[in-house]
Amino acid sequence: MKNTFGTSVNLTVFGESHGPAVGAILDGVAPGIAVDECFIAEQLSKRRPAGAISTARVEEDDFEILSGVFNGYTTGTPITIVIPNKNVKSADYSEMSRLARPGHADYTARLKYHGFEDFRGGGHFSGRVTAAIVAAGAIALSALKGRGIKLGTHIKECAGISDRDFSDIESDIDVLNALSFAVLDNKISDAMVEAVLAAAADGDSVGGILETAVYNFPAGVGEPMFDTVEGVLAHALFGIPAIKGVQFGSGFELAGMRGSEANDPFDISGGRIVTSTNHSGGINGGITNGMPIVFSCAVKPTPSIFKSQQTVDFVNCETAELSLKGRHDPAIIHRARVVIDSVAAIVLCDLLAQRGGTDSLMPE
Amino acid sequence: MKNTFGTSVNLTVFGESHGPAVGAILDGVAPGIAVDECFIAEQLSKRRPAGAISTARVEEDDFEILSGVFNGYTTGTPITIVIPNKNVKSADYSEMSRLARPGHADYTARLKYHGFEDFRGGGHFSGRVTAAIVAAGAIALSALKGRGIKLGTHIKECAGISDRDFSDIESDIDVLNALSFAVLDNKISDAMVEAVLAAAADGDSVGGILETAVYNFPAGVGEPMFDTVEGVLAHALFGIPAIKGVQFGSGFELAGMRGSEANDPFDISGGRIVTSTNHSGGINGGITNGMPIVFSCAVKPTPSIFKSQQTVDFVNCETAELSLKGRHDPAIIHRARVVIDSVAAIVLCDLLAQRGGTDSLMPE
Amino acid sequence: MKNTFGTSVNLTVFGESHGPAVGAILDGVAPGIAVDECFIAEQLSKRRPAGAISTARVEEDDFEILSGVFNGYTTGTPITIVIPNKNVKSADYSEMSRLARPGHADYTARLKYHGFEDFRGGGHFSGRVTAAIVAAGAIALSALKGRGIKLGTHIKECAGISDRDFSDIESDIDVLNALSFAVLDNKISDAMVEAVLAAAADGDSVGGILETAVYNFPAGVGEPMFDTVEGVLAHALFGIPAIKGVQFGSGFELAGMRGSEANDPFDISGGRIVTSTNHSGGINGGITNGMPIVFSCAVKPTPSIFKSQQTVDFVNCETAELSLKGRHDPAIIHRARVVIDSVAAIVLCDLLAQRGGTDSLMPE
Amino acid sequence: MKNTFGTSVNLTVFGESHGPAVGAILDGVAPGIAVDECFIAEQLSKRRPAGAISTARVEEDDFEILSGVFNGYTTGTPITIVIPNKNVKSADYSEMSRLARPGHADYTARLKYHGFEDFRGGGHFSGRVTAAIVAAGAIALSALKGRGIKLGTHIKECAGISDRDFSDIESDIDVLNALSFAVLDNKISDAMVEAVLAAAADGDSVGGILETAVYNFPAGVGEPMFDTVEGVLAHALFGIPAIKGVQFGSGFELAGMRGSEANDPFDISGGRIVTSTNHSGGINGGITNGMPIVFSCAVKPTPSIFKSQQTVDFVNCETAELSLKGRHDPAIIHRARVVIDSVAAIVLCDLLAQRGGTDSLMPE
After folding, report:
1. pTM for this entry
2. Predicted ipTM > 0.95
3. Are B298 and B244 a contacting pair, CB within 8 Å?
């Protein structure tokens, strides 16, 4: 099930960077969810490179829905979305058939696919494939919205500069979803862009941390022992190129706390059971507790840099010097956030459906 | 597939803390792997509480293999291991049917299981269930050993104190696997124990970070887009109670690096392709590159503390004060490391088998 | 997922005929289903050999529930049932380590497990394993009953003798479930027993056809394209030893009909949409239509016969003569019917849960 | 996993009869398999209606490979094939939004998809979707061929007329794969076509039985208890519209045999272990024994007939008279055989890969 993820709601992705198209199939979605093509386009535009800090390859992302939607609503059968690859310059990548770009999958792809891999532009390992995930994710986000659930991600850290924390989660999410560079504090946003440009000027790149919050997700969802909310989200999130760490709530900071600090005290507020802190990120024992779900992802610096790098020619098994040409992003973190939103939305739909399934068997 | 994990090799776990037994089924393992019951017992002893820094509940962990082993070797059919629960004092936990222990799953279990959950001692959410995983993991570790692969974990950080980094990975793994408190530097080990005792004296608990290395794992293994080595390992690791973050290689530190630092340059050493640094933790594009696989897990402080805590009575929906009695660990990090080794070993067997399956279809 | 079956509700089986125990885990069942140990025992007694037409090996089938049940109700966590093997005479089977019994899996097990298989009494391929399925199935049947659904199987054909067809399905099911030799017409029942005894007198065995009906199962359940009601049921049913054919409704007889005969005309009866015939077995397009689900299974004759048979010694690769000793059934069809009921009940719970999950995502 | 099937090698299908396209994704296939577009086209032509006994809707089946193939070989990543729907006349089907065609899924689709289903031409339930399976299956057949395995299907029975049995399986397969109407005996072929035309003249339709043989498939393949060769094949085969029964070897005829007849005696021939009969269809205990795999499928008569039929208007819940117009096949059995070949080839690749995976974990 290499390129398919999920149990009740599942996502299948396909495509190579320089092949005819990338695409995704979203299956198991309930019938009757309104499909807003403008919203899909808007989500795709958040992932599309733009401005000085992005690659010069501009993809139009004209998507086509091939199945599963009828008269503007999901039918309940597989939804297939295809995004043709148009602005492809394969000549730039010919060296990849033998030179391993550091931080990329050229060499490991060679090992796994024995030389039959489509090496152009990273092939199936290209971030290009995530465009299809974003299109599919837009439908999952609509499904969640239909049940009153909102989701948003900010750049918590980039090039060593940190955004402010989430405060009022619902309104913060609304603010973020209207931004193309998703930082809560405007001044910090400007500083981050400058830092990215400084790296770009050095022929280098930067990484960062993306933090996501989910508002109004029902309590009692998650399928331990193994299909915990944390486990299933992390599994899918690590499929996104460049993600090298995933943590929930206070995550790695919990390692330095004592139990009396880390335990979120339960309380009652407005007649509902809440916790007065949220170090657990809204999840206890792998199951949601009704507080906002909060998680963050480590995004490594874009591996494609213009600085000269040492590497190997894996066909001739000899060392080599690599100087990349072509079109590359000095940062992808601002583009990755909508991919994270999309993956998270699909996983959360799946977990909701599984909870609904179990409950539907309870005695009448 | 809530309590079953894996594709070609899979693990199913069952049991409640105060029920008759916990257990595990390991299916899909090749026939012909020698099953060493002494090694299973030794692994269980690493998880068993011992000494001043552990709970006074001492479990004997007499395991019984009910199926899948014949004349000392795996048969290829499901291997079932059952560990009876003996030293059970359920009276201590009666409050849990209504008081939510902060940091525990009592409240979320109630939401999910609608009051039918076995609340005694955390029920199915108890760390007790991990004993069965350790027994199953011992067989997976034997399978890996039969192919020359070694795996070990150290306490990288505990109570704010850090161990030295891995240096010679193979010999470090050997050293760690002979220790009950797995710290590479002896003096740091003593300091950590003192810090745990200090927390215990305060009626409090500590957490930490566990770092794992895998030596000699083949290159070219992993099933992207979704069944990346990172994704599958993280999915299973988050099933272990108390894990709130998982990162690979330099993980969250990568967020602050530039591409020129973070990219591991390829090189040739002893006729083999290697990388001169290992920020990626031995994984590019979700596929192993032949370098040691390195990952670390954030372990939150044990939520059971003796300090009085604010909470709610979720049956009557009113606030309450909670003072835990019973037997609790001020730290579980030293016991959790063998659980992580076990989970990782099972997942790595699964990924190896999947690679073997794909390759077996190549034209002759 | 070799020994695990199902998506939302799943069954894992383990054990060998002459190992310590057989058992099953049923996961994904809703919490709050009453577990009636007497009913489990009663179902096991239907599978247990009895009387002149069965093997002299009488198994007591003392089962133990190790997890997932608390205070008499399912908790929602994995339900583990273990049945120890007591009356084991392994000496009778020593030849199986080298002589392939015709119609058995000795030779194919050798090919697959490379000589590490537990060959005693058929090992994991023994019908003994189905006892655990029956115990788990009893809980699934209780879950269905809690939603008003009934299920029963009759011996439609045995040794060339046919039972009458189902007429009033609900009352026929009630009648069958009270019988140990499940034939609707008493006289035919007697004739079948005589035919089995005649075969036994010849040192031979017989097979037959089991037909199952499900009453009051909701319409609209099934997950095409691949998880059709037919496909999922057949998949699981073929896991039962001796099943070599599965058909729905009129099945293979449809091959000889014209469309105008085979198409079940829709009609309205009592305000509900029904079909006036049920050649489709209650399933159109893989989805239930509200009519009784009807399917039948071909049960091959028990392969263990006392007549001398030609075979091979697969260790020495030479022909051999085989004369079985030990305890063998001249027919297992009367015992197999409760296994079919059990497998069907588990699969139907799974399909119900999946439908519930999808519907739970529809907009509010 | 409704529209995805398989474990190591898996197939996902999508599309509606009157939507933009149908398609399939085949994932998990090894890299390095030559993709012959002419062979794909040839296979599609076998499924395409032709001549007097087929619908007048002629589909061109121009397929496009969107991913997973590079320089003429599979890459090891998901292979996506899309077949646009061109010759669509939706107006013919407008009644289906309310009138349930007997034998079709219109009513059950309504129940499951709550009115959001694409009802035109059967939507996702249309046999049209099987075109995509045939295209994907052509690649699986090539993979099998690369390992010396052949597969073919004949019309064993149609309109009450029976073909001769398989004799020399390898050459029979070769003969069948060159025919568009796959009957081994020419005269019988003519008689069948006449019988189909006779039914067509009556405004009626016929069904039949398709029997498939697989030559040179390795022994020792299959994943019991649940992923038996029988179970997995049947599961997938029942996904094909119109299949209502699946049997292996002598199947339902075994029900009337005695053990001494049904048991296939083992023998040695040419130094290999064989069976002198093949009632088991090459499978013992769910595992292949090295003899040809033989199975057959009951194909119900095409439900679309021109005769007037009684039905209901399920929107208004009232009875109605239905007279179909449009383009319909009096028989689809001759077109279905290549669908069965395709599904079987994909499933057999999956089972081969799983066996390879398990074996790859054996100690070195």
Report:
1. 0.97
2. yes
3. yes
